[in-house]
Write a structure and sequence with these properties.
elongated, 4-stranded antiparallel sheet, 9 strands, alpha+beta, 3-stranded antiparallel sheet
């Protein structure tokens, strides 16, 4: 007979500790999976970028120049290995001297009032004062040079432009600066500024140097205007006198010829 009083031992109960270990392992795998998913998503997002149609992208790898990317959809190494600098190579930029356009969005385009006052105050070659306002329009032709050759290329451009304009104005009389010599000043300044920009390797093309308001200083503006008005009146009087002379001299000659002919006929 089988002794029913002797039962086989019951299997051990895993208990709550084993359940907690299994649950912790599952949570760890889920967390690791989430981290991997986040890394993949951020990696993809950081690897894809778009270069606008009017720009180029300078790509830095570990902080050093790697390559220049053309417009369109581009890829780079994510997680901070590659960084990009978008440079607007097709956009015409400008710098203003002696004045500031209201509402300008580019802070490098304008300056504060005191800098404007100093920039437009110049001395001409005949030791007269003039107030000169002008604009430099330029484009970025080499993004690599623009970003890395000079610490602050826009500030350097401003200094170069002001130096060139003062030199050109200083070689001319105040009348040339204010009236007849404006076009020549613009042309010479453009050529000289481009040479200086190339020497410093700023990576810029100077499109135009344009004079705006050119006047005598406020302290002498009234006197200068009076002198200028007197000169204009003088020129006007000379032109009128020449016109009268051109009309009267032929008439007088005609009368003389007719009188001479009549006298010869009578004789």
């Amino acid at each position: 007979m089988v002794d029913l009083s002797r039962r086989p031992p019951e299997p051990p109960n895993p208990g709550p500790e084993l359940c907690q270990k299994i649950s912790a392992g599952v949570r760890g795998r889920i967390a690791l999976g989430l981290v991997v998913v986040v890394l993949v998503i951020t990696g993809i997002a950081g690897a894809v970028y778009t270069v606008p149609a009017d720009a180029e992208a300078v790509v830095l790898r570990f902080g050093k120049y790697s390559h220049t990317a053309k417009p369109g959809l581009r890829f780079k190494i994510p997680y901070g290995i590659d960084r990009k600098e978008i440079v607007p190579v097709e956009r015409q930029l400008k710098v203003e001297f002696g004045f500031a356009t209201p509402g300008a969005s580019d802070l490098d385009q304008i300056s504060d009032y005191e800098d404007q006052r100093l920039a437009r105050s110049m001395i001409t070659g005949d030791r007269n004062a003039a107030s000169v306002e002008w604009v430099v329009q330029y484009r970025i032709k080499s993004p690599r040079d623009f970003l890395f050759k000079v610490r602050n290329p826009k500030a350097t451009l401003r200094d170069c432009a002001e130096s060139v304009m003062r030199e050109v104005v200083g070689d001319r009389t105040v009348d040339e600066v204010i009236t007849i010599g404006r076009q020549q000043i613009e042309s010479v300044s453009l050529t000289e500024l481009q040479l200086l920009v190339d020497r410093y390797e700023l990576g810029l093309d100077i499109d135009q140097v344009q004079l705006k308001n050119v006047n005598p200083p406020d302290a002498v503006k009234r006197s200068f205007n009076e002198v200028n008005r007197a000169q204009q009146e003088r020129e006007k009087s000379i032109i009128i006198a020449r016109g009268e002379s051109n009309k009267r001299v032929p008439l007088a000659r005609g009368e003389a010829d007719r009188t001479s002919a009549e006298a010869e006929g009578a004789g």
